[in-house]
Amino acid sequence: LATGPRQNNSIFYEIRTYDVKPSKMKEFVEMVNKHIHLRTAHSELLGFWSSELGAMNKVVHVWKYDNFAHRTAVRQALASDKDWQGKFLSAALPLIEKQHNEVAYLVPWCQLGKPLKEGGVYEWVTFQMKPGGPALWGEAFRAAINAHINTGYTKLIGVFHTEYGLLNTVHVIWWNESPDHRAAGRHHAHEDARVVAAVRDSVRFLESQQNMLLIPLQCSPMK
Predict the structure, then answer these.
(1) Mean pLDDT across 194-220
(2) Are residues 194 and 99 in the same domain?
(3) What is the pLDDT of residue 158?
(4) The NIPSNAP domain covers which part of the protein (predicted)?
């Protein structure tokens, strides 16, 4: 259940979260859809979403890197990319109120998933676990995730454990056909004795939890 240096490869994901000025959200999204190809020319984008519920005027995007040297090279290339700097970054930065980034690893027992089809919604769940890392809470957390998967109402996209940022944070991304489909599935899961038992065991290690319902941007590889 270890993550970070003990995992089988050096691949990691940078999770970037931007709070956009409320009056500029539409303009920002349009700019991203128009110019994101300038950024994806340098490294792989996993997904780009805007918040619908649980937060307002927020976007989340996730980038994949082979290792830290790869990220350094990409950042240097972006700094020298006149198209990226001039057509997007210089115009987009004034629209953003706050930026936050984290480095996270996909937990070893989870493979990156894909949505079953286009047109659904994503649930981004952030768990702040007790200090101690997966050695303390990993087994119970994994059991709770698997219990929800086994109900069949939702599709797991990925489970990410932070390496830089607030430690002992786990981000879980789920895909559902619609908000109503998700609500019905959750109601059914909460009546499943296996889910209840697994969650009850895992919650002993939980400090806090936050959920967001996310809508993929037009440019997002995951739609």
Answers:
(1) 96
(2) no
(3) 97
(4) 13-111, 122-221
Q: Are strands 121-129 and 58-65 parallel, antiparallel or unpaired?
A: unpaired
Instruction: Write down the H helix ranges in 25-151.
Output: 25-40, 68-80, 82-83, 90-92, 134-151
Do both 100 and 111 map to the same domain?
Answer: no
CA distance 197 to 208: 19
For the chain, the domain total comes to: 2
The residues, any chain, with a CB within 8 Å of residue 10's CB and separated by 6 or more, are 66, 67, 68
The range of the structural domain enclosing residue 100 comes to: 12-105
Q: Which residue has the higher pLDDT, 91 or 190?
A: 91
| pTM for the structure as a whole | 0.93
Distance CA 95, CA 131 (A): 36
Residue at a domain's end among 105, 138, 162: 105
Q: What is the pLDDT of residues 45-58, one digit of tens each?
A: 999 999 999 999 99
Q: What CATH number does residue 98 fall under?
A: 3.30.70.100
Taking the C-alpha atoms of residue 155 and residue 128, their distance in angstroms, rounded to an integer, is 22
Q: How far apart are CA 214 and CA 209, in angstroms?
A: 16
What digits encode the pLDDT tens for the residues 66-122? Answer: 999 999 999 999 999 999 999 999 999 999 999 999 999 999 889 999 999 999 999
Give the CA distances from residue 216 to residues 20, 48, 106, 165, in Å, rounded to whole numbers and listed in that order.
16, 6, 20, 24
User: 121: which strand partners?
Assistant: 176
> What DSSP string describes 43-60?
SEEEEEEEEEESSSSEEE
What residues does 105 pair with on adjacent strands? Answer: 161
